[in-house]
Amino acid sequence: MNRSIKAAVAEGVDEIVIKNPAARHNIAVGIRQSCKIMIEGSVGYYTASQLDGPEVSIVGNAGWALGENLMSGKITLSKNAGASVGASMRGGEMFVGGSAGARAGISMKGGTLLIGGDSGFLTGFMMQKGRIIVCGSVGDAAGDSMYEGTIYVGADVGSLGADAKYEEPTEDELIELWAELQRSGVDGKPRFRKIVSQKKLYHYDTLERLERTLI
User: Fold this and answer.
1) Three-state secondary structure of 153-194
2) Residues 125, 146 contacting (CB under 8 angstroms)
3) Separation of alpha carbons 201 and 34, rounded Å
């Protein structure tokens, strides 16, 4: 299937529809040309991963690691995503219409991940850059070990992770976030909470003696 998609894009086809995917894994991966791909049905693991340019719309649910290592382009999912959505994404945009599982945006290095519902534990774990916007609640250990980047949460936070802290968002930030929601068809104007790094864990002088020796 992926070979057929790449061949069609190389021949100049700019819109592709995939019907009845039957929750197969690794659909529409490694595509590096601009095109539009519509997937009508739920998909499995690593769908639309390693993309650089395409716009992918999925009508259904997705398994683990949707959009892993997204470099540019846009992924839109109408329903729920499994664990590790947007893992290591480096750019582009991803929208999850429903809720997401644990470790959303793990090791994220850029781009925007917008989740219309809730997100599980360890959201933004080891995040390095970019934005995660969760309209609902997040689970425990939000922002654990994050280095840079920002997590916005519209409802409750189970608990903050190691080295994460709350920071008051500016009015300009909130206006920008609400505009982002409107562009994605999300109603409401949540008074987002903002989570950022305390920036303590990556300072060398705070390491234990044994850790310094190992390094």
Assistant:
1) ECCCECCECCCEEEECCCHHHHHHHHHHHHHCCCCCCCCCEE
2) yes
3) 39
How would you write the pLDDT of the chain (215 residues) with one tens digit per residue? 999 999 999 999 999 999 999 999 999 999 999 999 999 999 999 999 999 999 999 999 999 999 999 999 999 999 999 999 999 999 999 999 999 999 999 999 999 999 999 999 999 999 999 999 999 999 999 999 999 999 999 999 999 999 999 999 999 999 999 999 999 999 999 999 999 999 987 665 555 555 555 44
Prediction pTM value: 0.92
- C-alpha distances (whole Å) from 81 to each of 17, 59, 102, 181, 194 are 20, 12, 10, 18, 23
Q: How far is CA 108 from CA 26, 102, 129, 170, 197, in A?
A: 20, 14, 6, 23, 14
Query: Alpha helices, DSSP H only, in the chain?
Result: 2-10, 171-183, 209-214
Q: Which two tokens stand for residue 108?
A: 């994220």
